[in-house]
Write a structure and sequence with these properties.
Layout lengths: L1 E4 L2 E4 H23 L3 H17 L5 H29 L3 H28 L1 H4 L3
């Protein structure tokens, strides 16, 4: 079944696919907020990717590093919101683990930024 109006064509497959994507997105958010380990692991993995991209000598990668830094901030807020979500749902152990992971992630971020300030040529040799 296809419905056409001028240049716009919409198929039932597209609508079904859109609904499947909404369901999948909801499943991913449920996994993220209901987990005690996923938000912190996601943050630390993103921190590792940020470190690797920042150390790249290829200039276009620095624009990607800026985007990844913004994603790091969002991931940090994700840990905080996951802990608040678990407190609201009265999952005390998961909430406490998420809250404990906040300072762990902050300390890891400070160590990575200290490492980057010491190693990265853009910080050690200003133009």
């Amino acid at each position: 079944m296809t419905r056409s109006s001028g240049c716009y064509t919409e198929t039932i497959y597209t609508v079904v696919r859109s609904e499947e994507m909404k369901i999948r997105f909801k499943q991913i958010l449920t996994l993220y907020f209901n987990s005690w380990w996923f938000p912190a692991v996601f943050f630390l993995a993103e921190l590792a990717v940020f470190t690797r991209v920042t150390l790249s000598p290829w200039r276009p990668m620095h624009a990607l590093a800026r985007v990844l830094f913004d994603c790091l901030v969002i991931a940090f807020l994700g840990i905080l919101s996951a802990s608040i979500w678990n407190i609201i749902k009265k999952r005390w152990v998961k909430a406490v683990v998420n809250l404990v992971m906040l300072p762990v992630c902050v300390v890891a971020t400070f160590f990575v930024f200290d490492f980057l300030m010491a190693v990265s040529p853009q910080f050690t040799h200003p133009d």
